[in-house]
TrEMBL record:
Organism: Bacillus cereus
One Pfam match: ABC2_membrane_2
Name this protein carries in UniProt: ABC transporter permease protein
Any GO molecular function: ABC-type transporter activity
Entry superkingdom: Bacteria
Amino acid sequence: MREFANLVLNESEKIYRKKRIFVVMLILAILIPLFVYAQYREIETTQKRLGTTDWKVSLQQQIVDSQNRLNNSRLPEEWRDWLKVRVEQQQYYLDHDINPMAPGAPTFVRAFIEQGITLFIPLLVMIVAIDIVSGERSDGTMKMLLTRPIRRWKILLSKYVTMLFFISLILLLVGLFAYILSGLVFGYSGWNLPVLTGFVIDKETLNTNFVHLIPQWQYILMAYGLAWFVAIVVGTISFMVSVLIRNTPAGMGVMLAALIAGGILSSFATSWEGAKYIFSVNLSLTDYLSGKLPALQGLSMGFSLMNLTVWAVVSLIISFVVFTKQDMVN
């Protein structure tokens, strides 16, 4: 056990020396203030346009705007379905006197996790995970590591455990940066604000039979749990790519293309049944919490969780089989 702990500590030191976690912190320190400013400007512009700070007026105007768009006969059918669900959901909030986007750092954190779960957070994870094996093959340190009297599977497991730790650290940093920086503008209150969840999309219509109120802190914990699961899956797939592809930039290109493909397929392959089995199409797990229309027909929370779990398990098996059986030095 002590030997394995030393391996994990050694792998952690390698990632620390590569300054990858500092790159993640720098990205967060630059981009999150931009996102905060963009949201602040959007709120300010909306209030000026409507001439009031009343959230009900703003929400009512959004409903009217969506209904006007629905009257456009040239609106694509998938957009029409999405707008119908959105209008029903917004009307439900209005009828029950609940502001879905009350200003505050917790609300910003919630929105940031919901928006970042499909691409931003996976990209941060990829920065750490993509060269955890391939990087050592490129610089020659893998040969030195494999000459030690330690089983290969134990070496790879130590790398995987280290990756899981740093993925968790990245999620923690995302939350801290988002909360602290947005709180400077919006304030730090709002943890106990009521949030509606339990919306169910039934044949492209909104079913509100299971809707219930929960405090915002509980919703954020649920969203964070889903984001952590997505990060683990993306990290595990990146881990497999790092084992299979020796060149780190090439591996990064493969993962980046796979992540971007999810968004493209969600928009342009709505009639292709096989698209829903691609992992990057199933990353928007928080949509099921908020009641948004799934990216493709046939998707559900259960299906997406199972799909991502299978991808992660298969990727992990491939990683260990290849690493323990093949020549990882030359």
